[in-house]
Design goal:
By secondary structure, the protein is mostly helical. The chain is built from 20 helices and 2 strands. A two-stranded antiparallel ribbon has the order 1-2. A hairpin with a 2-residue loop joins strand 1 and strand 2. Helix 3 packs across helix 4 and helix 7 packs antiparallel against helix 14. The longest helix has 31 residues. It is globular and about 60 Å long.
C-alpha cells in the first residue's frame, strides 16, 4: 500500500489540475445560454445584436457567438509545440502551474467585458480574453507528458494516464451541473468567479506538493523511488543531449515519422466529435430536447456523457494493463483495439441520437449519447498512450505536434455549426 502512495498523489494533482483546466475552457459554453437570454433572472443581459449601435439579424448574432467560442482555439493551437518543449526544458511544475494561474486571472476578468457600452468592444474584449486563455491552456496537455514519462512505471502507464488525464473529462462532469446550479441562483458572472477561484486554490496546492522528478522529491519513499526508476522508460542520460536539440529540427524530425501522422489524424478526428459535444452540446440540449429547457437540467444532461467517459476510461485502462502485463496481447495491438472502440462506437451513437429527439424518445436520446460517448474513454489507452511510447524523452514536443493539429477542430466546429445550423431549433440542421 505504501509503495504507491506518492505517485498516486502526483496523479491526483494532475487530475485536479486538468479538472479546473476544463472548467475554465468550457464554462462559457453554458454561461452563454444565460448571458444571451433577455429573460434571465439575475442579469446582466448580453446583446449580440448591436455592433456599434446598428441592429443586425439573428444569424449575425449567432455568428458573434461562434466567433467568441472559436477564439479559444486560435490561441490553443499556437502554443502546443512550444508548451511541450518548454516542459522538457524547464519542467512541468513551472510551465503547467504558471499557465493555469494566468488562465485563472483571465477568467476573473471575463465578466468585466459587459461594462463596454458598444457591443463590438464587448465582443472583441471577450474574444481576446478567450484567445489568451487558449494560448495559456495550449501549453498544458503537452507539458504533462514529460511528467508522466518520469513518474509512471511502464506497467502502470495505462492506469496512470487513464486516471490523471481524465481530470479534463471529469471537469466537464463537474462544470456543467455546477454552472447549472450557479445560473439557477446567481448571475452568470459567478460562473467565472467560482471556476477561476477553484483554479487559484489548485495552483497553491500544485506549488506546494508537486515535484518534476521522483529522484528529487523529498516526500517519496526510497522503495517507491527505486520501483519507478527501475521500470520507467524515461532515459535520464539522454536528457542533456535532448536539451541541445533546436526546436525546428526536432519538430521536422517528428513530422517525418508516419506513425506521428496517424496520431495527428486521430487527434483531429477525435477532437472534432469531442468539440461538437463540448462546445455545442448545451445549445443542442436547450433548443432540441424538451427536458433541456431548464438551465439546471441542461447542465446535468450535458454532464452525463463525460461521467460515462470517465468511468469507461478507467475500465479500459485496467483491461489494457492486464492484457499487456499478462502477455496476452502486444502493446501496439491493444492500442489499436482501444483506438477503434474509442472512435467507432461514439460515432455511431452520435448519428443514432439525432433520430431520437421526440418528446417520447428524448430520454432514450440522452441514454444513447451518454453510453456511446463513454466508449471514447478507450482512446487514452489507444493513440494517446501510443504517443508516449513513440518518444518517451520527447513526449512533450511530440504531443504538442499531435494535439496542436488535432485541436484545429476546436476552431472549425463552432464556425461550421454556425454555418450549418442557422435555426438552432431545427433537428434536421443539427442532424
Amino acid at each position: 500500500k505504501g509503495i504507491t502512495n506518492r505517485r498516486v498523489q502526483i496523479a491526483v494533482l494532475v487530475f485536479v489540475g486538468l479538472m479546473v483546466n476544463y472548467m475554465l475552457r468550457i464554462n462559457i459554453n453554458i454561461a452563454l445560454v444565460e448571458m444571451t437570454n433577455p429573460n434571465n433572472s439575475f442579469g446582466p443581459y448580453v446583446n449580440w445584436t448591436d455592433y456599434g449601435g446598428e441592429g443586425v439579424s439573428e444569424i449575425n448574432a449567432n455568428d458573434a457567438e461562434g466567433f467568441v467560442k472559436s477564439a479559444f482555439f486560435i490561441g490553443y493551437v499556437i502554443t502546443q509545440v512550444p508548451g511541450g518543449r518548454m516542459a522538457e526544458l524547464f519542467g512541468t511544475k513551472k510551465v503547467f502551474g504558471f499557465c493555469m494561474f494566468c488562465c485563472g486571472l483571465l477568467g476573473l476578468l471575463t465578466p468585466l467585458t459587459v461594462n463596454f457600452k458598444s457591443a463590438s468592444l464587448m465582443i472583441w474584449s471577450l474574444f481576446l480574453i478567450r484567445m489568451f486563455q487558449g494560448l495559456f491552456q495550449g501549453v498544458c496537455f503537452p507539458a504533462l507528458n514529460p511528467l508522466v514519462a518520469k513518474w509512471s512505471p511502464d506497467g502502470e502507464k495505462g492506469k496512470f494516464m487513464s486516471f490523471s488525464y481524465l481530470g479534463g473529462t471529469f471537469g466537464a462532469v463537474v462544470t456543467y451541473p455546477l454552472c447549472g446550479i450557479i445560473l439557477a441562483h446567481l448571475s452568470w458572472s459567478w460562473v467565472f468567479y467560482i471556476t477561476s477561484g477553484l483554479t487559484m486554490l489548485w495552483f497553491v496546492c500544485w506549488q506546494c506538493f508537486m515535484y518534476d522528478d521522483p529522484e528529487y522529491d523529498p516526500l517519496i519513499s526510497t522503495a517507491e523511488k527505486e520501483l519507478i526508476l527501475r521500470t520507467r522508460k524515461f532515459d535520464c542520460q539522454q536528457v542533456s543531449e535532448d536539451l541541445t536539440v533546436p526546436l525546428v529540427p526536432l519538430v521536422w524530425d517528428i513530422i517525418k515519422t508516419p506513425a506521428v501522422w496517424v496520431c495527428m489524424l486521430g487527434d483531429f478526428c477525435n477532437g472534432f466529435g469531442l468539440y461538437v459535444l463540448l462546445t455545442e452540446g448545451p445549445d443542442f440540449i436547450a433548443n432540441i430536447l424538451p427536458v433541456g429547457k431548464s438551465i439546471s437540467a441542461n447542465g446535468w444532461i450535458a454532464m452525463l456523457p463525460y461521467l460515462s467517459r470517465s468511468i469507461m476510461a478507467q475500465v479500459f485502462g485496467t483491461i489494457s494493463d492486464f492484457f499487456i502485463g499478462g502477455g496476452y496481447c502486444e502493446r501496439l495491438t491493444m492500442q489499436k483495439i482501444c483506438a477503434s472502440i474509442g472512435f467507432m462506437i461514439p460515432a455511431i451513437g452520435m448519428v443514432t441520437m439525432s433520430y431520437l429527439t421526440s418528446d417520447k424518445l428524448q430520454f432514450v436520446c440522452i441514454g444513447v449519447l451518454s453510453i456511446s460517448f463513454g466508449f471514447n474513454g478507450a482512446i487514452l489507452s489507444g493513440h494517446i498512450q501510443n504517443i508516449l511510447g513513440l518518444a518517451p524523452n520527447r513526449s512533450g514536443t511530440l504531443y504538442g505536434v499531435t494535439n496542436g493539429f488535432g485541436n484545429l477542430s476546436g476552431y472549425i466546429v463552432p464556425l461550421l455549426k454556425t454555418w450549418v445550423v442557422q435555426d438552432t431549433t431545427s433537428i434536421a440542421e443539427w442532424r
